[in-house]
Amino acid sequence: QILVAESGGGSVQPGGTLRVSCEVSGVGDAVRRYSFGWFRQATGNEREGIGVYDGIGRSYYADSVTTRFTLSKVTGREGDRMYLHLDIRNLRPDDTGVYYCAATRQFSLTADSALTTNTFKYWGHGIQVTVST
Fold it and tell me: S-S: 52 plus which of 40, 70, 102, 114, CB 3.0-4.6 Å?
């Protein structure tokens, strides 16, 4: 059974830096062929894609995402888990929301489908990020 677990998050002041991380496991070395992504949802808004890595290693970022956001992906030492990090710099109050990590068995994603929630079947519970003074 696939497991998707986020960590990090919390309360940060504007201008600060934060990393949220995700661990995906439970499917053995098949995890290396999965695609992964980070999404966020602000109160009252729909869940939106931030950035995605597909199984080939291509990355896709939302047009609304600036260079403040950086994805990185690390394979676990024994190849049976994947870590997906999202680094956010110069945090702003409108970055506040619940950040979700997601995974899909789709190996190759297109720019049209990569950042849509329907592409992803497996989701973490989400982690709160609050940016305020």
Answer: 114
Pair 109, 54: CB distance under 8 Å: yes
Strands, E, within 13-126: which ranges? 18-25, 35-41, 48-53, 59-61, 69-75, 81-88, 97-104, 122-123
Residues 6 or more apart in contact with residue 44 via CB below 8 angstroms: none
Is the distance from CB of 120 to CB of 104 less than 8 angstroms?
yes
108: number of Cβ within 10 Å: 12
Would you say 36 and 91 are in contact if contact means Cβ atoms under 8 Å apart? no
pLDDT digits (tens, 9 = 90+) for 18-30: 999 999 999 998 9
Structure tokens at 86: 């999202």
For the stretch 58-95, pLDDT in tens is: 999 998 887 899 999 999 888 899 999 999 999 999 99
**DSSP code of 35?**
E
Q: What is the DSSP letter of 93?
A: G
Q: CA-CA distance, 54 to 107, in Å (whole number)? A: 6
Q: What is the enclosing helix (H) or strand (E) of 83?
A: strand 81-88
